[in-house]
Amino acid sequence: MSSTEGEVDAIVDVSLAGDDIVFPAGTPVVLEVELQARTQADLEEFLVYWIVDEEKQWRHFERIPVQLNGAWHKCRIPLSATGRLRSLRFTFGKKPVTVQMRGIHLESAERELPADIKAGRESLPEAVTLTSDALSLTVDTVTHQYKVFDSRTNRTWQSDAVPNWLVPYKVDIVNQSHAALSLYDRFAQRTVIVDLQLSASGTVSFVLTPEGASQPLGGSQHFPPRFVGEYDTGKIVFCDRSCGVLLDQLDTTYAHWPLRVYGNTHCLDMPWVGVFDDQLGDSMMLLVESPADAEVALSADPAGRHWPKIRWLPSMEAFGYPRQISLRFVSEGRHVGLAREYRNYLKATNRFRTLADKARENPNVEKLRGAPSIWGGRYPTKFIRQMRPLGVTQGIVSPCKDPGIIEWLNELGYLTGRYDSYTDILEGPVSFQRDDVEANAIRPRKGAGPKHGWTLRSGQQMYWRSSAKWQAAADSYVPAELSSRPYNARFIDVAAAAELMEDYHPQHTFDRRQDLAQRRALFQRMREYGLVLGTEHGNDWAADLVEYFEGTMSGPFWWSSWPAGYLDRPTRDQLSDQYLKYGMGYGHRIPLWELVYHDCVLSTWYWGDTAGLLYEAAPELADRKDLYNILYGTTPLVWMDGTGYRYPDEVHRMLRTFHDTCPLHKVVAFEQMTNHDFLSPDGSMQRTTFSNGTTVVVNFADTPQKYVHANAAMTIAPQGYFVEGPQFSQSRLWLDGAIQTRIAAPGYLTVASEGKATVDGVGLDGRLTAFKVGENRWNVFVDPNCDVELNIPKVTGWTPADELTLCYMDDIGEVHRPAAPVDEAGIVRFKSNDNSWRFVLLREVAQERVAKNSSELGAQSE
Question: CA separation (Å) from 430 to 123, 442, 802?
Answer without folding.
Answer: 63, 15, 64
